[in-house]
Amino acid sequence: MEVLGIDPVAIQLGPLAIRWYGIIIASGILIGYLIAQRTAKKVGIKEESLIDLIIWCVVMAIICARIYYVAFEWDYYSQHLAEIPLIMNGGIAIHGGLIGAFLTGFIICRKKNLSFFQMVDIVAPSIILAQAIGRWGNFMNQEAHGGPVSRSFLENLHIPEFIINHMQIDGIYYQPTFLYESIWNIIGFVILLLIRPQLKIGETFFAYLIYYSIGRFYIEGLRTDSLMLTEHLRIAQVISIVIIVVSIACIIYRRVRYNPKKFRDVKGYYHN
């Protein structure tokens, strides 16, 4: 693949290449953690409770995101086993990462007697912001883009020149779907911060899942590198629909069954 515009390698130390992809994703995780830590402090959650949770969730998210991607691309990776650990070149699936992170978080919260829904409410805005930042790693790798378009199409979007230039791959310009999702997620970050105080415990988490899934469903339809369930069915779109339905059902069920407190009314550790 001919790379135009920006070199995806940030630093070359002999045979070791440090790519922008990894730097950007790590930056997103760090910024997300700092924001979540500030919220936890306001709520009255000890710093060590959040640190332990995030460290394990991030590790398992990366592992599961890669496993998820490799599983659906097994025809290729079965013939290139040595490439399976090489995540620096891209190839991690957000849905796989979310599944791994939330399952890990649930287990840790149970062991430490923490409220899973309180903790995910604290980190939900940070997650969607980290996703928004992480999409720029896809941009640097020239991946997660849409179909071919003209340069004039990109110019009419009024986006910076460096984005237009880097969306030219092997002489063809492509839809910057990474940018669409990044902007959608940044807006979601702001919305979640604004509505979280009014929502009941657990509902910020479900609002995040619903909001992200709506955007992902439509943006996924523009991409050309989607993981496919069948010849015409995109895995991410199917999962997005399932997440939306299940999240709405969970909100209704929890309101009827538990009637949890509002996020703003809880100080300290929540147990219900």
TrEMBL record:
GO MF annotation terms: phosphatidylglycerol-prolipoprotein diacylglyceryl transferase activity
GO cellular component, one term: plasma membrane
Residues engaged in binding a 1,2-diacyl-sn-glycero-3-phospho-(1'-sn-glycerol): 135
Segments traversing the membrane: 20-37, 49-72, 84-109, 116-134, 177-195, 202-219, 235-254
GO biological process: lipoprotein biosynthetic process
EC number: 2.5.1.145
Assigned keywords, A-Z: Cell membrane, Membrane, Transferase, Transmembrane, Transmembrane helix
Pfam families named in the record: LGT (PF01790)
Subcellular localization: Cell membrane
PROSITE patterns: LGT
Predominant place of localization: membrane
Keyword Nucleotide-binding applies: no
Topology relative to the membrane: Multi-pass membrane protein
Pathways involved: Protein modification; lipoprotein biosynthesis (diacylglyceryl transfer)
Protein family: Belongs to the Lgt family.
Cited function: Catalyzes the transfer of the diacylglyceryl group from phosphatidylglycerol to the sulfhydryl group of the N-terminal cysteine of a prolipoprotein, the first step in the formation of mature lipoproteins.
Name of the protein this chain belongs to: Phosphatidylglycerol--prolipoprotein diacylglyceryl transferase
